[in-house]
Amino acid sequence: MTENLSKTVSQYIGPNGPDPAELTLCVHCGLCLNYCPTYLELGTEPDSPRGRLQLMRALDEGRVDASPRVQLHFDRCLQCRACETACPSNVPYGRLMEATRANFFERRPKSLRQRLLWGLVMRRIFPYPRRLKFLLSGLRWYQKCGFQNLIRRTGILWRISTKLASIEALTPNATRPFFHPRDIYSYSSSTTTKTSAALLTGCVMPFIYGDTHRATARVLSRNGVRLVAAEKQVCCGALHAHSGDIETAKKLARKNIDVFLASEPDAIVVNSAGCGSHMKEISHMLRDDPEYASKAAYFSSLVSDIHEYLVKINFEPPKGVIQRSITYQDSCHLVHAQQITEAPREILRSIPGLDLREMEHPDRCCGSAGIYSLAQSELSRDLLKSKMTEINATSAEQVCSANPGCMVQLDAGLRLFGDRKTEKTERTLHTIELLDESYRNAEGTQYADKV
Q: How much is the pTM?
């Protein structure tokens, strides 16, 4: 009996595992249940934050085995961290879930698809901008040549594989001009420079949402911020950390710390909520690293979400009118992890003519959650359908958010479940793009983006 118990514990406990003291903080009150999207969708206790915390403790104490059935409940977690907002005991659920997944990551057997995803895509392509650009150039060709339109119009994938068709439906638009960190040199401040900031360009975002980066650069320059290029930056590692590949996440964090601190910015500005949340918490991830612990703490202290940063520096109120109704989707890692809810709305309400229509649960996860929409495609689709029901109920002409993953997911939702009363619903915008649009409308300025 003792031998079996020891074997079970040794399979689970690892250097990156959850803190046993933090696991005991949960008092089982259940206030988290009605905030958890997977519990609301599935109605099962093990798929709630409280249930997963109990499973973590049982694994930690050797009372259950790390079986595929147990792993499934952890895999279903979106890590949206809505439970943290609801929790009266301040349980650091997101941190505990990352640590739990880190323990599973190297130990669990992986299918061929999972080995390809992590061994090739996540470790050998995502961290390297040139390789990722090459991969996404293929996607760009697929979309520009009209092949994607043909596939979607005929519906052939739905007849072949529902899962494959669901994944294809989430394919982001890669036809817009790409963005490179050095492109920020094209945007010089039109006012007296007040401060300097380096912009995280990230991994996928420069190639999928280059327009958002260009809008961000223009808005910052307009508000007297001198932009600093951290040209050799890499993926922030949020996707890796959330999925349990903690060692790769640490490697990427060290690289970015060196690159960003070398550029000596007054702030590091992030327009991707998931990346910003992770970067603010890098100091905890590297707390035991003798070389990087103090540097990581300083690095994290410089990180600001673009919305909180603009409010902090007293952004210039825009004067250009945008006659449009919009609804705002709170990005989970902005509202729950970073506790930022008012700043994006302050920016949206400052835009003349813009009609902000709140949906019923703007802070409930849309089902994107990094690579969750690929790994748990059916559940992700169900969550997206529920989200689109709320969006459609607002009758808003456009949806906006503050995270690229949400934008990809919501764009898919508009195609699959949207109310097509207006063509304006065909694209989800970042809140900063709306602010930039208002500035441009006031000046009558059109910007020619580089290809």
A: 0.88
Residue 408, classed as helix, strand or coil, is: helix
The predicted model gives 259-277 an average pLDDT of 95
Q: Is 401 helix (H, G, I), strand (E, B) or coil?
A: strand
Per the structure block, which two tokens stand in for 177? 């001009």
Residue in this structure with the two tokens 């699959």, named with its chain if needed: 416
Look up residue 418 and give its DSSP letter.
Answer: -
Architecture of the domain spanning 181-312: 3-Layer(aba) Sandwich (3.40)
User: Could you give the CA distance from residue 217 to residue 225 in angstroms, rounded to a whole number?
Assistant: 9
Q: What is the mean pLDDT of residues 280-290?
A: 93
Helices then strands, each counted (H, E), the chain: 27, 8
Tokens of 291: 């070389």
Q: Which has more confidence, 82 or 125?
A: 82
Domain boundaries, the chain: 2-107, 112-169, 181-312, 324-443
Q: What is the pLDDT of residue 14?
A: 54
Which residue from 374, 367, 369 is spatially nearest to 116, judged by alpha carbons?
374
- CATH number listed for the domain at residues 324-443: 3.40.50
CATH number of the domain located at residue range(s) 2-107 in this protein: 1.10.1060.10
Q: Decide whether 181-312 matches 324-443 in CATH topology.
A: yes
User: In Å, how far are 11, 12, 65, 370 from 104, measured between CA atoms?
Assistant: 9, 7, 12, 18
Instruction: Indicate the pLDDT class of residue 10, thresholds 50, 70 and 90.
Output: very low
